[in-house]
UniProtKB/TrEMBL annotation, chain A:
Organism: Buteo japonicus
Localization annotation: Endoplasmic reticulum membrane
Keywords: Endoplasmic reticulum, Glycoprotein, GPI-anchor biosynthesis, Membrane, Transmembrane, Transmembrane helix
Transmembrane segments: 397-416
Designated name of the protein: Phosphatidylinositol glycan anchor biosynthesis class S
From TrEMBL, chain B:
GO cellular component: GPI-anchor transamidase complex
GO BP terms, alphabetized: attachment of GPI anchor to protein
Transmembrane segment boundaries: none
Pfam families assigned: Gpi16 (PF04113)
Full protein name: Phosphatidylinositol glycan anchor biosynthesis class T
InterPro entries to which the protein is assigned, alphabetical: PIG-T
C-alpha cells in the first residue's frame, strides 16, 4: 500500500468540505511521486481522490468522468434504486438485489448446530459484535436504526442433503441446490413475529459429524473459498467446518470454539453486498483505499444515501397515488383531520426533498425524504381508511328499492295516464 | 384456568401491556390480541412477582383472562419450538399432538422470571420455565384396567436425553396407600427412589434419570409401565382446599353468582384470597354480597372492590376470607344482566357469554410437617412442588368458568321489518291509491287477445262454455 498517498489523503482531509454528497478531487502532476507507478487514480476513504494529470485535457476529462461514476451515483444505480417501479426490461441483472430502503433494520446472528451430541459449539458473539459489527453499524447509523440480536438453534438441518465427493473425500453442496437450503431453516428462525423492520439473518452452520467437512461449490464446480453464500434481501449463510479429531476414540461431544474473526469477515462482506456497496470491476489504474474497521468509505455511504433518498421519494409518490385512487373509488370516505395533515406533511416533505436533491444537499434531502415516507405511511395505513367500512352504493340501492318501488309504480303509471289525457284533451272538446 | 391467562409485572403502562399481548399472540398463534382494557384488571393482593423483584408495586401488575379460547395444536407447536432440543431429543419427543389432545385436560404455560446468575447475585438472568399438564384417562380408554405405559399414552417411547440438558428425569408416583406394599409394580426398575412430602402428603417417587448411562444399557428405548397387582377401589383423598362456582336464578334479567369454598382440614383454619373478575355487562350489586360459614356471617378482613365502567373495565373483587376448620363457606352476590349494543354480540350469541374463573390463593397448612427442600440440590423438584416453609404450602386454585345468557335480540328483525313494511306499503297504499285515482271509460269489446284465446282453449278441454 503506497504510504505517500495515504498520508497525503489524511493530511488533506481537514481542508475539505465535509458535507455529505460532496467530492473533492486533487489533480497532481504527471511526475509526482505521491502515486505509485502505474496508478493514475487513488480513491481515499473519505470523500477525496488524487488524480494524476497526463495525456492532455481530454484524457483528464474522461478519467474524471470515470472517477465520478465510481464514487458517486450513476444512471444505473438510480434505476436500480427505483427497480420496483421500472419495467423489468430496462434493468440490468443486478437490479432488485439490494435491500429496500427502510427506517430500520434488524440483524440476527444465528448459530445452527444440527448435531449437539457431537459438537458443543461456543461462540463469543457479544464480543464479536461489539468489536467488529458495531463500528460498521455506527457508520451506517445515518442511514437507518439497527438492532442486533443473536440466537443458537439446535437440531436445525439444512433442507438439502449434500453429496459425497470421493476425490476430495468431502461433502459438497452444489450451486443450484443453494436456493432450497434456506426454506426449512427459516421456519425455525422465528424473527418476524416481534419486529417492525425488515430482518437480515446471518447464519453460521456447523455441519454434523457425519457430513463433515462440507464445502459449497460455485457454478464452475470449484469450492468457494469463504464457504459462504448470501441471498439478496434476506441474509447470508456460512458453513464452518470442524476438523475431525486426530484419534477416533475421542469423547463426544467435541468442544468447538468458533474463530469469530474469520466469521465476522465473511458476514461483514455479505452485509456490504446486501446493501449494494460492492466494488465493481475497476480499470487497473485505479487504487481504492481500504476503509478499515469502519467497513465502508464515506463516499460509499453517500452512494447509499443517494439511492435511498430517491427510493423514498418514489415510495411516497406511489403511496399517495394509491391513496388518491382509493378516495376516487369510494366517494363517501371520511378523512380525519390528522390523516389530512399527514398527507399535507408528506407532500411538503417530498417537495423539499426534491428541491434539496436538486441543490445537492444530500443530508437535508435524506432527512426530508425519511419524514415524507413516515408521514405517507401513517396516512395510508390509518385504520379509518378501510374501504370495507363504507357501504357500497349498490347495497344502499338494494335496501331502498323494495320500499320505494311498490309506492312509485302506481304514481308513475297515473302520471303517465295524466299526461296522456292532457294530450288528448289538447284537441278541445266542445260540450 | 380454562381459556388463556396472561399475568405480567412490567414497568411500562398499558401501552406495553398491549404490545406484549400482541407479540405473544403472534408467537403462540393464540388470540391474545383480544386482551384489552375490558378484560384486564390490576389485582392488589393475589399475585406476587416470581423471582427477584424490587418491591411489589401493584400498579405494575396486569392480569387478563380470555375464557372462551381453546388450546390447540397450533399453540403447541410454537411452545415446542421454544425448547432447545425441540421435539427431536429428550423428553419432548413424547409430545405429539394427536395423542396429547386425546386427553381429558390439557394445559400449557410459559413463565419468565429474573433470577440471580450465581450465588453472589451480581448479575441477573432471565429464567424461562415451560410447563405442560395433561390428564389421560386410561381407565375409560384402557378396557377398565388402570395399567398404563408411556407407549400406550403417547404411542412412542423415550430414546435418549437432550444433550443440552443438565438434568432430565421422569418421576412416577408410586406412593403406597394405607401402608400396603406390593400393590403396584413399575417396569423397568427405576434408577432411584425419592421420598418427599408434597402438598401435605407423604409421597414416594420412582425416578428415572435419562442422563445416567445405565438406563439405556439394556434397551435402546425406555418405556415406563405401571401395573396394579390387585384391583383397587378408587378412593381419592379430597384435597384440603377446593371450590365450586355456579350461577343461579331464573330469567334473563337477574341472577346470582355463588362460590362455595371447602376447607376439609380437621383442625386448622387458614385464610384464602379470592379474586373475582366479572365482565361489565353483568352488573354486580355489591350490597347483596353475603359470606356465610356454618350458618353465621363471615366478615372478610380485607376487601378491594373496583366497580366496572361500561365498555371499559370489568369488575374486580378481591377478598381475604378466613376459613374455619372443616367448613363450607358460601359467597353469593347478585347481578343484573345488561343489554348490549347490536354490534357487540358475538356471532353465536345464544351460546352465552363466559365469565372467567375466580382465583383462590392460599397458604394451606399441611397435616404432616414438611422438611424444607434445598433448591440447589433438586431444582427440578422444587419448581414443581414449591414450599415456602415447613408447615404450609402455597396453592392457587381456579374455579370453573361460568356461562351466562344475556338478553339477546332477534337478529333477523331488520330483514323482517323491511319485508313487512314493503309489503304493507305495496298492498295497502297501492290499492288505496288506485281506488282513489282510477278513472273509468267505455271500451269497445275486442275479439279477444291472446290470453282470452288461451283461456278458451283450456275451457274447451274442461268442457266449460267459452268466454
Amino acid at each position: 500500500m503506497p504510504p505517500f498517498s495515504l498520508e497525503a489523503d489524511a493530511a488533506l482531509h481537514p481542508l475539505q468540505d465535509a458535507s455529505l454528497g460532496s467530492l473533492t478531487m486533487y489533480v497532481v502532476p504527471e511526475t509526482s511521486s505521491l502515486l505509485p507507478q502505474g496508478i493514475n487514480v487513488y480513491v481515499g476513504k473519505h470523500r477525496s481522490a488524487l488524480v494524476r494529470a497526463g495525456g492532455g485535457l481530454a484524457a483528464l476529462r474522461t478519467l474524471l468522468q470515470q472517477l465520478t461514476q465510481v464514487m458517486s451515483f450513476t444512471a444505473s444505480s438510480i434505476s436500480a434504486a427505483l427497480s420496483d417501479r421500472v419495467p423489468s426490461g430496462q434493468l440490468g441483472p443486478d437490479a432488485r438485489r439490494h435491500l429496500k430502503s427502510s427506517l430500520g433494520y434488524e440483524i440476527t446472528f444465528s448459530l445452527l448446530n444440527p448435531d449437539p451430541k457431537s459438537h458443543a459449539v461456543d461462540w463469543d458473539i457479544e464480543d464479536a459484535v461489539n468489536r467488529y459489527v458495531q463500528p460498521v453499524l455506527d457508520k451506517l447509523s445515518l442511514v437507518a436504526n439497527f438492532s442486533v440480536d443473536s440466537q443458537i438453534l439446535y437440531y436445525a438441518v439444512l433442507g438439502v442433503t449434500p453429496r459425497f465427493d470421493k476425490e476430495s473425500s468431502s461433502f459438497l453442496l452444489s450451486a443450484h441446490s443453494l436456493p432450497h437450503v434456506i426454506n426449512p431453516v427459516e421456519a425455525r428462525l422465528g424473527s418476524s413475529a416481534a419486529s417492525l423492520y425488515p430482518v437480515l439473518n446471518f447464519l453460521l452452520y456447523v455441519p454434523e459429524r457425519s457430513h463433515s467437512p462440507l464445502y459449497i461449490q460455485d457454478k464452475d464446480g470449484a469450492p468457494v473459498s469463504t464457504n459462504a453464500f448470501h441471498s439478496p434481501r434476506w441474509g447470508g449463510i456460512m458453513v464452518y467446518n470442524v476438523e475431525a479429531p486426530a484419534s477416533p476414540q475421542v469423547s463426544l461431544p467435541l468442544h468447538v470454539d468458533v474463530d469469530m474473526v474469520r466469521v465476522m469477515e465473511v458476514f461483514l462482506a455479505q452485509l456490504r453486498l446486501l446493501f449494494g456497496l460492492s466494488r465493481e470491476e475497476l480499470p487497473p489504474e485505479f487504487l481504492l483505499e481500504s476503509p478499515g474497521n469502519e467497513g465502508l468509505a464515506d463516499w460509499e455511504l453517500d452512494r447509499l444515501l443517494w439511492a435511498h433518498t430517491v427510493e423514498n421519494i418514489a415510495t411516497v409518490s406511489t403511496t399517495l397515488t394509491s391513496l388518491a385512487q382509493l378516495l376516487d373509488k369510494i366517494g363517501n370516505i371520511v378523512i380525519k383531520d390528522d390523516v389530512a395533515s399527514e398527507v399535507y406533511q408528506a407532500v411538503a416533505s417530498a417537495q423539499s426533498a426534491m428541491a434539496e436533491l436538486a441543490a445537492g444537499h444530500l443530508h437535508l434531502a435524506f432527512q426530508a425524504s425519511k419524514e415524507a415516507v413516515t408521514s405517507s405511511e401513517r396516512a395510508f395505513f390509518d385504520p379509518s381508511l378501510l374501504h370495507l367500512l363504507y357501504f357500497p352504493d349498490d347495497q344502499k340501492f338494494a335496501i331502498y328499492i323494495p320500499l320505494f318501488l311498490p309506492m312509485a309504480v302506481p304514481i308513475l303509471l297515473s302520471l303517465a295516464k295524466i299526461v296522456r289525457e292532457a294530450r288528448q284533451q289538447g284537441t278541445p272538446e266542445r260540450c | 384456568p380454562p381459556g388463556l391467562e396472561n399475568v405480567c409485572w412490567n414497568k411500562g403502562v398499558d401501552k406495553a401491556w398491549k404490545e406484549l399481548s400482541n407479540i405473544l399472540s403472534g408467537i403462540f398463534c393464540a388470540s391474545l390480541n383480544f386482551i384489552d382494557s375490558t378484560n384486564t384488571v390490576t389485582p392488589t393482593a393475589s399475585f406476587k412477582p416470581l423471582g427477584l423483584a424490587n418491591g411489589t408495586d401493584h400498579h405494575l401488575l396486569r392480569y387478563a383472562v380470555l375464557p372462551r379460547e381453546v388450546v390447540c395444536t397450533e399453540n403447541l407447536t410454537p411452545w415446542k419450538k421454544l425448547l432447545p432440543c425441540g421435539s427431536k431429543a429428550g423428553l419432548a419427543v413424547l409430545l405429539k399432538a394427536e395423542r396429547l389432545f386425546h386427553s381429558s385436560y390439557h394445559s400449557q404455560a410459559v413463565h419468565i422470571r429474573p433470577i440471580c446468575r450465581d450465588a453472589s447475585c451480581l448479575a441477573v438472568s432471565w429464567e424461562l420455565r415451560q410447563t405442560l399438564t395433561v390428564v389421560f384417562d386410561t381407565f375409560s380408554s384402557g378396557q377398565g384396567k388402570k395399567d398404563w405405559s408411556l407407549f400406550k399414552m403417547f404411542s412412542r417411547t423415550l430414546t435418549d436425553a437432550c444433550p443440552l440438558a443438565s438434568q432430565s428425569k421422569v418421576y412416577v408416583d408410586i406412593s403406597p396407600k394405607n401402608k400396603e406394599k406390593e400393590l403396584l409394580e413399575v417396569t423397568p426398575p427405576p434408577t432411584s427412589v425419592h421420598e418427599a412430602i408434597v402438598q401435605g402428603d407423604k409421597r414416594t417417587y420412582a425416578v428415572y434419570d435419562l442422563l445416567s448411562p445405565s438406563l439405556f444399557n439394556t434397551s435402546r428405548s425406555l418405556n415406563v409401565q405401571l401395573k396394579w397387582k390387585r384391583p383397587q377401589d378408587t378412593e381419592l383423598p379430597t384435597p384440603i382446599l377446593h371450590a365450586q362456582r355456579y350461577v343461579s336464578g331464573y330469567g334473563l334479567q337477574t341472577g346470582e353468582i355463588s362460590t362455595l369454598i371447602y376447607n376439609t382440614h380437621p383442625y386448622r383454619a387458614f385464610p384464602v384470597i379470592l379474586l373475582e373478575t366479572v365482565p361489565w355487562y353483568l352488573r354486580l350489586y355489591v350490597h347483596t354480597l353475603t359470606i356465610i360459614t356454618k350458618g353465621k356471617e363471615n366478615k372478610p378482613s380485607y376487601i378491594h372492590y373496583q366497580p366496572a365502567q361500561d365498555r371499559r373495565r370489568p369488575h374486580l373483587l378481591e377478598m381475604l376470607i378466613q376459613l374455619p376448620a372443616n367448613s363450607v363457606t358460601k359467597i353469593t352476590i347478585q347481578f343484573e344482566r345488561a343489554l348490549l349494543k347490536w354490534t357487540e354480540y358475538t356471532p353465536d350469541p345464544n351460546h352465552g357469554f363466559y365469565v372467567s374463573s375466580s382465583v383462590l390463593s392460599a397458604l394451606v397448612p399441611s397435616v404432616i410437617a414438611m422438611k424444607e427442600v434445598d433448591v440447589e440440590q433438586s431444582p427440578l423438584f422444587t419448581s414443581l412442588f414449591p414450599s415456602s416453609d415447613g408447615s404450609s404450602y402455597f396453592v392457587r386454585l381456579y374455579t370453573e368458568p361460568l356461562l351466562v345468557n344475556l338478553p339477546t335480540p332477534d337478529f333477523s328483525m331488520p330483514y323482517n321489518v323491511i319485508c313487512l313494511t314493503c309489503t304493507v306499503v305495496a298492498v295497502c297504499y297501492g290499492s288505496f291509491y288506485n281506488l282513489l285515482t282510477r278513472t273509468f271509460h267505455v271500451e269497445e269489446p275486442s275479439r279477444g287477445g291472446l290470453a282470452k284465446r288461451l283461456a278458451n282453449i283450456i275451457r274447451k278441454f274442461r268442457g266449460v262454455p267459452p268466454l
